[in-house]
């Protein structure tokens, strides 16, 4: 879908000189996620990898764990009153063996490109619904030198960012530093969901030998998504939140922040770093 970027007219002022020209902007559109035909969540996202975004979101919610859990994923035809398809409504139909979670007005959530699951739940909720306990997996060992090289590799893979300067990115690396996948989105949590959804489709969960790197801060939602996908190491180029650190300590997640060059802060799970 050619909707990742859009063009808008902009007035540029450079060194006192004024000119008008078109500028390339990252697209942002709402996407409604439906589960077995019932509305579940709305997120503001950059169009593209929408099916992966929807299924990755459901992994982080504890609904999906295997490729076989999904029967179909489709765009909803007739999503508007006039019957047109906006490609902004995705319906995930569960396989018969998957228990449909309770969808109530209280559970129905709205997500934004900045905050993820606003007001979502507690550490206990994540701990009790995680399918792939990180503490039970054989420990991955990564060196600080390997981690320090990852942000540059992520930045080199951000193709749309080069044109817009307005996207977050998330990448999966192997424990040896190999780039496995990278996704960009206006929402950092969406980028992670797209990674996880693509891994679900290929039946690669849990990602228990992977390192997740995000281009911004490490919020509670991002730590939650890493835990729910069985990812043992989460690194961010900016700061974590206090709740993200608490969740990492509770679940055994290795959490690294302020990853800039050879410098970094390890907030939890330092046993996985070859210090």
Automatic annotation (TrEMBL):
The keyword Cytoplasm applies. SUPFAM superfamilies: Cytidine deaminase-like. The active site is at residue 115. InterPro entries: Cytidine_deaminase-like (IPR016193), FdhD (IPR003786). Its main location: cytoplasm. GO terms for molecular function: sulfur carrier activity; sulfurtransferase activity. It comes from the Bacteria. Keywords: Cytoplasm, Molybdenum cofactor biosynthesis. The keyword Cytoplasm applies. GO terms for biological process: Mo-molybdopterin cofactor biosynthetic process. GO terms for cellular component: cytoplasm. It is found in: Cytoplasm. It holds the Pfam family FdhD-NarQ. Belongs to the FdhD family. PANTHER family: FORMATE DEHYDROGENASE, SULFUR CARRIER PROTEIN FDHD. HAMAP family: FdhD. This is Sulfur carrier protein FdhD. It comes from Streptomyces termitum. The gene is fdhD.
């Amino acid at each position: 879908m050619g909707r990742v970027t859009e063009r808008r007219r902009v007035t540029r002022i450079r060194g006192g000189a004024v000119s008008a020209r078109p500028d390339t902007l990252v697209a942002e559109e709402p996407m409604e996620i439906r589960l077995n035909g019932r509305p579940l969540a709305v997120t503001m996202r950059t169009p593209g990898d929408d099916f992966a975004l929807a299924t990755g979101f459901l992994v982080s919610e504890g609904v999906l764990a295997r490729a076989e859990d999904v029967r179909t994923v489709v765009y909803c035809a007739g999503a508007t009153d006039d019957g047109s398809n906006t490609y902004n409504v995705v319906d995930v139909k569960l396989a018969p063996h998957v228990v449909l979670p309770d969808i109530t007005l209280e559970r129905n959530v709205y997500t934004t490109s900045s905050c993820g699951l606003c007001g979502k739940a507690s550490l206990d909720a994540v701990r009790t619904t995680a399918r792939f306990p990180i503490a039970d997996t054989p420990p991955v060992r990564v060196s600080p030198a390997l981690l320090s090289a990852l942000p540059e590799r992520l930045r080199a893979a951000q193709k749309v960012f080069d044109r817009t300067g307005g996207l977050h990115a998330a990448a999966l690396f192997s424990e040896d530093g190999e780039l496995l996948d990278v996704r960009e989105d206006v929402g950092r949590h969406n980028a992670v969901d797209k990674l996880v959804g693509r891994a679900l489709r290929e039946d690669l969960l849990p990602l228990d030998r992977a390192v997740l790197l995000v281009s911004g801060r490490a919020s509670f939602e991002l730590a939650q998504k890493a835990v729910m996908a069985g990812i043992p190491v989460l690194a961010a180029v900016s700061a974590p939140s206090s709740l993200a650190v608490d969740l990492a300590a509770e679940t055994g997640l290795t959490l690294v922040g302020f990853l800039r060059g050879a410098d970094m802060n390890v907030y939890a799970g330092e046993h996985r770093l070859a210090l």
